[in-house]
Every structure is written in structure tokens, then in C-alpha cells.
Recover the amino acids of this structure.
């Protein structure tokens, strides 16, 4: 009997060979399609060794329910969120274990408009359908389409749209990708910034995706993972350090002295920026 205890409060995380494997991911793919009555779904995966195979299993499950699967390949969860809305899909799935131990994997899922699944109803329904395995006959209409290049170009364009390059001053920035999925996407963003004349110098650290995670699981919140970014900021006389987690839906900052900047200060800075744009707006901090 398959163990679907990989379903957690808001996403899916399981131990490989225990409660997550290709068969379980296949069933989740079919259940996701049925639950959302999905016709088109974006899928992508992080840098872990098992992620491509698990993503392929999810994709097969989706296609066996007649879904058009748009594939991102190696990508970040943020790219999946963006592509789900940009390509007007019924949902999106990123196969990722984020910052969990190396023997884990999982999924983050959204519905149309990149909205999260309600954990008490929609996510629970996906689990119940997967556990029941009452999928009906396989469909022959499901297809797969590689949109990796177009999706990344659109994502980079969106990110750059937030930047007023004329206001930038020359600074040096250490970027630590933790050997996760961030490196290739960051390179695409950096290339476009350079093309547009942004006066930024990037120093890359642990940049190449590597499923063995030779420098530790990419979780910058852990004290033991912070020295490489801190030390590089100091060594390079950089103005700023940025460290990403495995699927780069989170990043963490270091100041010019190499000191780690706690997240609440970043929230305060962002709130200040948004209040400049929308005076008197409400800021929700969870």
C-alpha cells in the first residue's frame, strides 16, 4: 500500500523510497488534474538528483488525465509561479525539496492565477483522490510542450521591469546559489542587466547546480551555512551578499560587513518601499 504521508500542511515533502517515489508522484499528478479539472499545467524541477524522474512521473500522471503539460526543466519555484499565470494555466507544480535534507523530495503546487491550494479543502482533495486511485481510464490527448526558453525570457523581463536602472549606483554583490537551481536563472537576469547598462558587479559563489550539494544543503538560515557568503563579502570588499535556498523562492541578505540581515528588517524595508507607492496602504506581516 502506498504511503501518502508526504502531504503536509501546505505542500508535499517526503523521504525518498519511504513516502515519495515515481509511483506516488504519478498518482499525485493524476489527482491534481482531476481535483482542479485542469487542462494545462506548468511543471518544473529543482537541482536534486531525483527531481527530473519525479517530475517526469508527475507529468505522465497529468497527461494520462488529458492535460497539456508545459515543462520548464531545471527552474525555481518562483519561475513556476510566474509561468502558471503568464501562460494562463490551470495550475503549476514544482518538484522540489527546497532546503530539506538530501534524502528528501517533494512538490509545491498552485492553481490558476498562481494561487495556493486551500490546505483544508483543495490540497486535502488531491490527497484523497491520490489515495483512492480511482482515476478512470487514461486519456490519449495529454501532450507535453517544452517552454523553458520562452518562460525564462518572460520571467527575466518581468524581474527587470521592477528595476529603474537609471537609479542604480556601482556596487559589488556576492551571489551564493548554494549549488541549487538559482544559478542559470540568475545568469539570465545578470546578462540582461548588463545589456541594459546596470553598473553592477556580481561575484558568484557555489554557483553551479550540483545534486550532491558539496557545500551543504542550500539553507542560508542555518548558522553553519552563512560563513561562505559572509567571508566572500569581506574578501571581495563587496557591498552586499545574497544567498538563495535550493529552489530560490527565498533569498537572504548580508550587509557590507558580512553580517547576516534578519528577515524582519527586509520586511520593514519592503514595506517602506510599498508605502511610498501607495500611501496609507495596509501592510500584512505574517
Amino acid at each position: 500500500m502506498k504511503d501518502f504521508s508526504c502531504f503536509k500542511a501546505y505542500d508535499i515533502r517526503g523521504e525518498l523510497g519511504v513516502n515519495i517515489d515515481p509511483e506516488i508522484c504519478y498518482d499525485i499528478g493524476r489527482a491534481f488534474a482531476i481535483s482542479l479539472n485542469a487542462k494545462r499545467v506548468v511543471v518544473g524541477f529543482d537541482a536534486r538528483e531525483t527531481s527530473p524522474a519525479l517530475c517526469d512521473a508527475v507529468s505522465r500522471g497529468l497527461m494520462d488525465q488529458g492535460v497539456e503539460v508545459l515543462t520548464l526543466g531545471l527552474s525555481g519555484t518562483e519561475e513556476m509561479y510566474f509561468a502558471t499565470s503568464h501562460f494562463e494555466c490551470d495550475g503549476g507544480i514544482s518538484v522540489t525539496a527546497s532546503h530539506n535534507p538530501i534524502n528528501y523530495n517533494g512538490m509545491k503546487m498552485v492553481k490558476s492565477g498562481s494561487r495556493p491550494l486551500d490546505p483544508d479543502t483543495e490540497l486535502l482533495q488531491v490527497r484523497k483522490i491520490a489515495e483512492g486511485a480511482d482515476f478512470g481510464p487514461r486519456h490519449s490527448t495529454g501532450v507535453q510542450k517544452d517552454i523553458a526558453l520562452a518562460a525564462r525570457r518572460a520571467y527575466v523581463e518581468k524581474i527587470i521591469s521592477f528595476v529603474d536602472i537609471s537609479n542604480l549606483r556601482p556596487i559589488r554583490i556576492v551571489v551564493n546559489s548554494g549549488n541549487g537551481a538559482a544559478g542559470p536563472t540568475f545568469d539570465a537576469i545578470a546578462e540582461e542587466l548588463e545589456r541594459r547598462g546596470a553598473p553592477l558587479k556580481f561575484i558568484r559563489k557555489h554557483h553551479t547546480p550540483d545534486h550532491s550539494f558539496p557545500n551543504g544543503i542550500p539553507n542560508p538560515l542555518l548558522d553553519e551555512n552563512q560563513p561562505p557568503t559572509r567571508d566572500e563579502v569581506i574578501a571581495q570588499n563587496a557591498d552586499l551578499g545574497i544567498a538563495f535556498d535550493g529552489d530560490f523562492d527565498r533569498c537572504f541578505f548580508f550587509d557590507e560587513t558580512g553580517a547576516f540581515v534578519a528577515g524582519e528588517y527586509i520586511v520593514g524595508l519592503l514595506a517602506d518601499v510599498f508605502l511610498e507607492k501607495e500611501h496609507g496602504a495596509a501592510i500584512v506581516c505574517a
In short: The chain has two domains: 12-153, 163-277.
